[in-house]
Design goal:
Length: about 800
């Protein structure tokens, strides 16, 4: 019963430290587990993290060139010079421009702003825009959220006799522009302790420095609401100074005095709501960005700088309308892009999706690329073609550096830039297919199948003692959550379902789980399609976050599900018995002559190989050996970073820090890639099976061991007469003549529970094959794990008339003999 194909990655916790750390830090054991899982063991750091103070912010004058910038701006203010703020069209640029404009305009009327147009001007400082602005006789430009790479453009501004101060946070190239001052924590010669500020964070520092110099104590904090909004919208890591800024800024946003921001909040469905990073980033942020994506971003600056509530309401209405248009445009392009992919791209062969269309709106193709990457779990580049050229935006997955990939293909590109997970490019239309071919050849070398599965990072495995209201409430102290400080993710295992239903027009899944005497509610948003696929009698593992559900003056602990799957032991059973169906077909059983090695020696051997930096594939055919060895390896490997991989081709069951464990892999399709050693350990029924697998180990060191030849455990796969009777009775319980078995594993589990027999996937399948041979049923496979079965005869039959049954008995005698 496969519910998903996600990779679980666990943080490691030293269990012995939990109680003492909880006591010394004055926090619950649950919160202590979270901090320990993230490598935080210092009580002082914990206290500072949970109670971030504005007094902990660094002096703005630690930023390189800050003193020069402050001196030049104060000179301009004293002399009545005309100042221009040159911003960017995204939310970070808009808030940066707004904060600096609001502060400077409180001291002078000679300040203006300019936001370039995404399509007409392009990103950053551009010469054509500068030419238009110079007519207004500005003597000082201040760039915000841009300018670090504008070497030639700034030289042109200098030639016109205008000073420019650059404030930015983007990566610097080897050559910096010749600006009057460059305030950027990313400068290699800047010793500022925190490098992760957003563009608006750098502006906040500039305003802080100006306020301090002018004696306007803490005036910079009047703008924390906008600074927090821009920081969140630009997806900056919420650690260090960003955490302090956003923690205080979110609180300020709820009662903001900025008329435009308040109007935006109230008219975005957030009135009287507790604001958080999600609402700021996914509700407010897109509306601000809509101006820059679809229309003119300067209206967003006007919104945050106006003191007229009527004007603010008009701008918000425009932004909401543009955001709706953006959503519609995005949906249309996404539909066309998916049609292109389904018709022209084999995603099983092409590891990077390259899709393009005529005149797709450049303001939304980046979002479309994100949607496609989420849908197909492939890096994606979406291009818009106009006049023989294509401009593209790409998004990537963990493990594939998109910027490096573009650099590899630069012979076909006219321009490109970006970073590991997102990038942009310009290319001639005639070169698109050559580029598509080359980037996929590059991806073939860099990616493997496991890279295409979504990953779930787990902080802590829960037990029921963790689930109390006080402990879960304490987790809220870790807010604000975001990049660099994600909401803690928990795994709660081996749970039974007490109740299950759909809610929200059947889109969402509501489950009440039982852990012995404890009942816990869980909600799975957009998981409603799982209803009907879940067998209530099975045990499950749930992965998600913990929250307090407050409703009708009551508070209850609730799990917010990210992932739901069968309990580990059931998954291993599922994989093992299913694998036997293929494994036992390869050869008649013959006992091998391989060296017998004690399991403890195998464990030591595998761990020694890992200490030497070797990657190991451990191959077994015994569910008991898999459990035994994985337990020993996990216990022995103190600094283990656990990674559990479920339902991969050929049953690669999990990967423990470079130790890949396989159970009964298919010798025809299996490839041992990216490993140094293959260790075969089990009770092998046939030498030919191992021989075929060894043919796939060319260039890899092989260790073959045969465990003590106790074949009797495998006899559980042979159906007894009582098993056959139970299986047939279960089939006859169906009210229809044709029975659809969606999952043979679940069918076998139901037979076991109803008739108190030991049924499994392999045995159930063999039972149905025997019935078919005896003329009792007709069956056909409807999927990998599903069957359609029709009852054809209710008369008496002799089991000995079945060749399969006789072979099964012979196999039992062999195994037990």
């Amino acid at each position: 019963m496969q519910l998903d194909k996600k990779i679980r990655i666990y943080n490691n916790i030293d269990e012995e430290k939990i109680e003492s750390f909880s006591h010394s830090a004055g926090i619950s054991s649950l919160l202590a587990k979270v901090f320990l899982s993230r490598g935080i063991e210092d009580e002082t750091l914990v206290k500072r993290f949970l109670s971030p103070s504005l007094s902990d912010l660094y002096s703005p004058f630690l930023l390189k060139d800050m003193d020069k910038a402050v001196e030049r701006i104060l000179e301009a203010l004293d002399n009545g010079e005309k100042i221009l703020i040159y911003g960017d069209y995204d939310a970070d640029g808009v808030t940066s421009t707004s904060v600096l404009y609001n502060f400077l305009s409180s001291m002078t009327k000679d300040v203006d702003f300019y936001i370039p147009h995404r399509v007409k001007d392009g990103y950053g400082i551009v010469k054509d825009a500068v030419d238009k602005l110079l007519f207004h006789e500005y003597s000082l430009f201040i760039s915000v959220d841009c300018g670090t790479t504008a070497v030639s453009e700034i030289e042109y501004i200098n030639e016109k006799g205008v000073d420019i101060i650059v404030t930015d946070h983007h990566k610097c190239k080897d050559c910096l522009p010749n600006a009057y001052a460059i305030i950027n924590p990313q400068r290699l010669d800047c010793k500022y302790p925190f490098k992760g500020l957003a563009g608006v964070g750098v502006v906040y520092k500039l305003v802080h420095a100006l306020s301090e110099t002018l004696g306007l104590m803490d005036a910079q904090n009047n703008y924390l609401d906008l600074v927090a909004l821009g920081t969140i919208a630009d997806i900056m890591p919420l650690v260090g100074e960003n955490r302090i800024i956003v923690k205080h800024g979110l609180k300020m946003m709820e009662d903001t005095s900025n008329i435009g921001l308040k109007t935006l909040i109230d008219n975005s469905g957030l009135k009287d709501s507790k604001l958080n990073t999600w609402s700021a980033g996914f509700i407010l942020g897109p509306r601000i960005n809509a101006g820059g994506r679809i229309g003119d971003a300067s209206k967003s600056v006007k919104l945050f700088t106006t003191d007229n509530s009527t004007e603010a309401l008009e701008i918000v209405a425009e932004l909401n309308s543009e955001n709706t248009f953006r959503q519609e445009t995005e949906a249309k392009i996404l539909e066309e892009a998916i049609k292109f992919i389904e018709e022209q791209i084999d995603v099983n062969k092409e590891r990077v999706i390259v899709t393009y269309g005529e005149s797709w709106h450049q303001g939304v193709i980046g979002i479309v690329a994100s949607r496609i990457t989420e849908r197909y779990m492939r890096p994606c580049i979406v291009m818009s073609i106009e006049d023989g050229f294509a401009k593209g935006s790409g998004r990537s997955i963990d493990g594939f550096n998109l910027f490096s990939a573009l650099e590899h293909c630069k012979e076909y590109l006219d321009d490109f830039g970006g970073h590991e997970l997102a990038a942009g490019l310009t290319i001639k239309e005639e070169n698109i297919e050559k580029f598509r071919e080359l980037i996929n050849l590059y991806a073939d070398k860099m990616l493997n199948e496991q890279d295409f599965y979504p990953k779930v990072y787990i902080d802590v495995s829960l037990d029921k003692d963790d689930l109390n209201i006080e402990s879960v409430k304490e987790l809220e102290l870790m807010e604000p959550f975001g990049m660099g400080n994600p909401a803690p993710v928990f795994e709660y295992g081996n749970l039974k379902i007490d109740d299950i239903r759909t809610v929200g027009d059947k889109k969402h899944l509501k489950i009440r789980f039982r852990d012995k005497d404890l009942l816990t509610d869980a909600i799975g948003f957009n998981m409603g399609d799982l209803f009907g696929k879940i067998n209530n009698n099975l045990a499950f593992d749930v992965i998600g976050s913990l929250e307090i559900n407050r409703w009708n003056n009551t508070e209850k602990v609730q799990l917010k599900m990210k992932d739901l799957r069968l309990h580990d032991d059931l998954m291993l059973d599922y994989a093992y018995y299913k694998s036997l169906d293929g494994y036992l077909k390869f050869e008649e059983p013959t006992k091998g002559n391989f060296e017998i090695i004690d399991s403890a020696l195998i464990t030591d051997k595998v761990l020694n190989l890992r200490e030497m930096g070797k990657k190991v594939a451990l191959v077994s055919n015994s569910i008991d050996y898999i459990r035994e060895l994985s337990k020993k390896i996990k216990k022995s490997y103190v600094n283990l970073k656990k990674q559990l991989k479920i339902c991969y081709t050929d049953f690669n069951i999990f990967d423990i820090d470079g130790i890949s464990v396989y159970i009964n892999p298919n010798p025809i399709t299996t490839e041992f890639r990216d490993v140094d050693n293959v260790v075969f350990y089990g009770t092998w029924l046939g030498e030919a099976y191992l021989t075929r697998l060894m043919e796939k180990t060319e260039g890899v060191d092989v260790i073959v061991a045969n465990a003590s030849a106790d074949f009797s455990k495998l006899s559980v796969i042979i159906p007894e007469r009582s098993d056959l009777e139970a299986c047939y009775r279960q089939l006859k319980k169906y009210s229809t003549k044709t029975i659809l078995i969606d999952d043979i594993f679940v069918f076998a589990y139901s037979v076991s529970k109803t008739y108190k027999v030991r049924m499994n996937f392999y045995k159930a399948k063999k039972c149905i094959e025997i019935f078919e041979e005896l003329g009792l049923v007709m069956s056909s496979a409807t999927g990998t794990n599903s069957l359609s079965v029709s009852l054809t005869n209710s008369g008496k039959v002799k089991l000995d008339n079945s060749n399969i049954y006789k072979k099964m008995r012979e196999l039992r005698e062999y195994l037990e003999g």
